[in-house]
Amino acid sequence: MPTDTGSLLRLENLSARIGRQVVLDAVCLEVEQGECVALVGGSGAGKSTLLRCVMGLSRPARPFGGRMQFADRQVDFASDRLRHWPGGIAYVPQNPDHGFDPLKKLRWQWRQAARIVLGSSDTNPHRAELLEAMGLADFGGLYPHEWSRGMQQRLLLAMALLGKPRLLILDEPTSALDPLIAAQVLRLVMEHSKENGIALLIVTHDLSLATRYANRTAIMTEGRIVEFGSTRHLLATPQSDYGRLLVANRSWSKAAVSTDLKSVAAE
Amino acid sequence: MLNVKDLQLHLDGAVILDKLSFRLESGKTLCVIGESGSGKTSLLRSLQGLAPARFEELCFEPRSGSPVRYRAGWKGRPGLPGSRWVMQDPIAALSPRQKLGVSIAESLHGRNIARQDMNKAVVDALQDVDLPAHFASRRPSEVSMGQAQRACLARALIARPDLIFFDEPLSALDAIVQKQVALTMSRIQRRYGISYVIVTHDLGFAAAYADWVLVLRRGRVEASQAASNFFNAPDSAYCKELIEAAEALGELDTRTSADVGRAEATA
Questions:
Q1: Of A35, A244, B229, B250, whose CB count within 10 A is highest?
Q2: Is residue A48 part of a domain?
Q3: CB proximity B256 to A under 8 Å
C-alpha cells in the first residue's frame, strides 16, 4: 500500500524505435510512491525495451520522443543522455547469469557496485545488514558459480538495494528460478520494499503473478499499453481484447481441459 | 506400460539418481517435479539411454511391437524404441537451416516411406498440432516460439510413438501460449492414446494435466502419488512447501472461479 501518495515515476508518450521499426508507441505509465505496479505482456510486447528506456539506455532501441518525471527530476527521452539520468532506480535482471561476471570474485563485484552507486567502496556496515536481510552469509573470496542461483539472485537484489533506491525494477523475477526459490526471493523483496517505502515495478508475462502482488497492473502488447488500472478492477472487467485474453488464460484450470476434451469427443 | 525399478545413476562417483521406481500406464500423464538439480533431466536422459544408468528392472511394453525388458546387470545403454522427446527450447531443437517440414519428416527416417506419403504425413501432423500446412516450408527463424514448439510436437507425433518425453515443454513460452499448447498436447494424447512423461516445475500445469506426480529431491523420490491426492494431501512436508510456493507465485490457484468472483464482488 502506498504510504504517501504522489507519483514517483511518470512516463508520458515514450516512443522508441529499433532501426525504422517503432517498438514503443506513445507509452504512458505511472508508479506512485511505495506502490507495486506490474507490467504484463507476451513475448515481443516491448516490456524489456520499456525498462531499458526508463533506466536511460538507448540501445538497441532508441527513444525518440516522450518525457519522464522521476521524483523531482524531469527527463526528455529524445535529448537527455545517460549521465544526466536521475539516480534512485535499481534493476534486477531476470537471470543471475546476466548480472554477474563469472570470472570475478563476488567481493570485487560488490565493491564495483558500491563504487558506482555510493561513490565509495567502503560499504561494510551496509553489507552485513543487507546480506542478513536477504538471508545470505558473507561471500568471502567466492566466485559466482560457487553459490546457487537462488543465492546469486538474492545477492543481486542486495546490490540493487545498496543505493537505497526509490524504485526497484524486477524483470521476470520468477522465470529463471525454480518455484521454491522464486517465492522466497519475492517474499524478501516485498518485505524489504514495504519496510523502506520502495516502489516496485514487476515485469512479467504471467498475469497470475501480477494479481498476487501488484496494486495496479498495466497490460502491454505490440509496443503499447492497452490497459492500466487497479489489478482488481482489471481482473473483473478487462477493457481490451488482449486484456480479456490474458484474464481468461491467467491460471491453469481443469475446467478448460474437460470442456476441450468434450468438444474433441463431439467431433 | 512403463515400469522402472531401482534406477540408479552415478557420475564421477557422485550419486545423481538413487533407487527410483515408478510405473506409468498406457495413455496417462506422469509429471516429474522438482527443484533445479534434483535430477529431473537426468532421469529422462537415463531412460533414453543417454546416461549410464543401472536398473534393477526396466520394462517397456509398447502397444504394438515387442516389449523391451532390461534386467539388472545389463551393461549396454538402454533406449526405448518407439519413444520420442520434446525439448525445452524449441528453436534450439530445430535445425535453423532446415524447413520445418524437413525436420518433421526426419522423424520417420529409415522407415522407407514414399515421398508422397511422407508429405501427406507431414501435413497431417501439422494439422494435428493446429498449424496450417504451409508451415512445412517455413524455417525456425520465421515462426514464433509457440509455433516452433508445436512443430517439435508434430515431429514427435508423426512417428506415432507410444511414449513422449517432454523436458519443460512450456517454460520458454509466455502465459497465454502455454495454455494453448498444453490443450493441444492433451488433445493429441486423447486422440492417439500416447503416454506422456513431462518434466516441469509448474505445479499449476501439473494440477491441470497430470494423472500421476513424481516429486524428486536430490535424486531421490520425495513423493509418488496420484495427482488428485498430491494436491489435496501431499505426502511430505517438502511437497507441502512446494505447493505453498506455487500458490505464492500464483501458479496454482486453489480458489475456484466462484471464490474469485465473490472476492471481487465484495471488494
A1: A35
A2: yes
A3: no
User: Whose CA is closest to B203, among B170, B158, B236?
Assistant: B170
Helices (H) then strands (E): counts for chain A: 10, 10
Q: What residue numbers bound the domain in which A142 lies?
A: 97-164
A2 located within any domain: no
Domain residue ranges of chain B, discontinuous segments joined by +: 2-82+161-266, 89-160
The partner residues of B20 in beta bridges, in order of sequence, read: B7
Q: How far apart are CA A200 and CA A189, in angstroms?
A: 9
Instruction: Give chain A's length.
Output: 267
Verify whether the Cβ–Cβ distance A207 to B175 is below 8 Å. yes
Rounded Cα distance between A21 and A15, Å, is 11
**First vs last Cα of chain B: how many Å apart?**
51
On whether both A47 and A122 belong to a single domain, the answer is: no
Q: Tell me if B245 sits within 8 A of B252, measured CB to CB.
A: no
Among B249, B254, B257, B266, pick the best mutation site for testing chain A contact (most A Cβ within 10 A).
Answer: B249
Last residue of a domain, one of A120, A140, A164: A164
Q: Does B186 touch chain A (CB under 8 A)?
A: yes
Scan for cell 552469509, then name that residue: A137
Determine, yes or no, domain membership for A217.
Answer: yes
CB contact under 8 A, B175 and A256: no
| Cβ-nearest to A212 among B250, B260, B264 | B250
- Give the residue among B257, B169, B176 at the shortest CA–CA distance from B206: B169
What is the separation, in whole angstroms, between the first and last Cα of chain A? 50
**A219 and A192 within one domain:** yes
Domain count, chain A: 2
DSSP for residue A19 = T
pLDDT digits (tens, 9 = 90+) for A131-171: 888 888 888 899 999 988 888 988 999 999 888 899 999 99
Residues A195 and A212 in one domain: yes
Q: What is the mean pLDDT of residues A18-42?
A: 93
A82 and A194 both lie in a single domain = yes
Task: Give me the helices (H) in B96-174, please.
Answer: 100-106, 115-128, 145-157
What pairs with residue A39 in β-bridges?
A203, A218
Residue A92 pairs in a beta bridge with: A170
- Best A178, A231, A241 member to test B by mutation, with max B CBs in 10 Å, is A178
Contact assignment for B35 to A180 by CB distance below 8 Å: yes
Q: Please tell me the predicted confidence (pLDDT) of residue B76.
A: 62
Q: Are residues A78 and A11 in the same domain?
A: yes
Could you please state the CATH topology (level 3) that the domain comprising B2-82+161-266 is classified under. Answer: Rossmann fold (3.40.50)
Q: Are residues A38 and A68 in the same domain?
A: yes
Residue whose entry in the numeric block shows the C-alpha cell 481482473 = A235
Eight-state DSSP code of residue B212:
E
Give the pLDDT band (50/70/90) at residue B180: very high
Amino acid at B102: V
B148 and B159 in contact (C-beta within 8 Å)?
Answer: no
* Predicted complex ipTM: 0.78
Last residue of a domain, one of A164, A197, A212: A164
